[in-house]
Specification:
Blueprint: H1 7-20, E1 24-27, E2 32-38, H2 44-52, E3 58-62, H3 63-69, E4 78-82, H4 89-96, E5 112-113, H5 118-130, E6 136-143, H6 145-152, E7 155-158, H7 159-167, E8 172-179, E9 188-195, E10 202-207, E11 216-222, H8 225-229, H9 237-251, E12 254-259, H10 262-265, H11 268-279, H12 284-291, H13 301-309, E13 314-318, H14 322-330, E14 334-339, H15 350-359
Parallel strand pairs: 1-7, 11-12, 11-13, 13-14
Antiparallel strand pairs: 1-2, 2-6, 3-4, 3-6, 4-5, 8-9, 9-10, 10-12
Helix pairs in contact: 5-7, 11-12
The structure holds guanosine-5'-triphosphate and zinc ion.
Cofactor: Zn(2+)
Enzyme class: hydrolase
Pathway: Cofactor biosynthesis; riboflavin biosynthesis; 5-amino-6-(D-ribitylamino)uracil from GTP: step 1/4
Length: 364
């Protein structure tokens, strides 16, 4: 038995620190380490403190973001923008956040570095992403990172242990289930699942008493606060959610997973940043890229894990998204049938649905 936090627990702490603007130390090979701050939550004092340490801090961004900024990414998916001597917090935010890109088209020329531990820089961006912040991190290479972390009471993340944990899907545990009569079906039951990594909980809504021996009518729904709760006309999520529940109610059985992967996994704040870019004329995929994200950052392995833990191994999947089908099949859930789900097209979301069909391979 040990009271010392394990790597999963350390990562959860690191995420909380970054959201609060507290720096984190990432330890690499031997004595090598980097000090990181999430660009989005860094304040002027911490930026000044970082500079006072000397060395050559960089702003690590994704190649997606670098492309918009016309900055050279020397390391495939990663670019390290050198901090000019007079870089202010506004400069840092201007690189990290595309909000004023159109107003300030020339943010450069930006010098990008080829040196430094690319693995640690990638880890810094990954941590910012998992904290649902903009994918940009201020990073300073340092020796003696362990002592520095201890002296300043900072979370120390050993990179070699962190990598595999961040790649894997966290185990989920059932917390509680209770009866929930709904408009769509009186015989409803809501199950709560909690991941071991301290991340968002996910839900399963079981309708009727679906047999575990036959393919179940199933839907993997990704959280969409704007569509599900506010009835946004920009997407089709609300009608899809209610349509799927109604279809299961009519059939007398089904299971809908409500996965808390808002904004295709980038979080609601970043999704609203994407919406703001969409108002500047970019489509849903371009907006994600300009922010530095991939088109879709969701992890559908979570869905397969929940279905299996509930005893379902075969599904009739309500979806238009071929990626969901592939991920289920790859992770032990057989999709015996795809059941199309086409509801809620409006004049506001027609372009959005067309982009998903053209660029993300959605079936019409
Ligand atoms: N980043 C981003 N996320 C969005 C946008 N519009 C909707 N979302 C999110 O997209 C997710 C819904 O995914 P969809 O692509 O509509 O549908 P799908 O679940 O992949 O596929 P289907 O099963 O066919 O519905 C939810 O998490 C929404 O919050 C957007 O413009 N940008
Ligand atoms: Zn939506």
């Amino acid at each position: 038995m040990s009271f010392t936090p394990d790597i999963t627990e350390v990562l959860a702490r690191a995420r909380a620190d970054l959201r609060m603007g507290v720096p984190v130390v990432l330890a690499g090979e031997g004595d090598h380490a980097v000090l990181m701050l999430a660009a989005e939550t860094c304040d002027a004092q911490r930026l000044a403190d970082l500079r006072a340490l000397g060395g050559a801090p960089v702003l690590a961004i994704t190649a997606r973001r670098a492309e918009t900024l016309k900055a050279r990414a020397y390391d495939d998916d990663l670019a390290r923008v050198a901090l000019p001597g007079d870089a202010t917090l506004a400069w840092v935010l201007g690189i990290a956040d595309p909000a004023d890109d159109l107003k300030t088209p020339m943010k450069g020329p930006l010098a990008t570095a080829r040196t430094g531990d690319a693995g640690l820089h990638r880890l810094a961006i990954r941590l910012a992403k998992t904290a649902r912040l903009l994918p940009a991190a201020l990073v300073l290479e340092m020796a003696g990172g362990k002592d520095f972390a201890a002296a300043h009471n900072l979370t120390l993340v050993p990179a070699a242990l962190a990598g595999p944990v961040l790649e894997a899907t966290s185990n989920l545990h059932p917390v509680v289930a209770a009866r929930l009569p709904m408009e769509a079906a009186e015989a409803g039951r809501l199950h709560i699942f909690r991941p071991e990594d301290g991340g968002e909980e996910h839900y399963a809504i079981e309708i009727g008493r679906p047999s575990r021996d036959k393919p179940v009518l199933a839907r993997l729904h990704s959280a969409c606060f704007t569509g599900d709760v506010l009835g946004s006309l920009k997407c089709d999520c609300g009608p899809q959610l209610h349509g799927a529940l109604a279809q299961m109610g009519e059939a007398g059985a089904g299971v809908l997973l409500y996965l808390n992967q808002e904004g295709r996994g980038i979080g609601l704040a970043n999704k609203m940043r994407a919406y703001s870019l969409q108002d500047q004329g970019f489509d849903t995929v371009e907006a994600n890229h300009r922010l530095g994200f991939e088109d879709d950052e969701r992890d559908f392995r979570i869905g397969a894990q929940i279905l299996k833990s509930m005893g379902f191994s075969e599904v009739r999947l309500l979806t238009n998204n071929p990626r969901k089908i592939a991920m289920m099949e790859e992770h032990g859930v057989k999709v015996v049938e795809r059941v199309p789900l086409k509801v809620g097209e409006t004049e506001h979301n027609r372009g959005y649905l067309a982009t998903k069909a053209e660029k993300s391979g959605h079936l019409l």
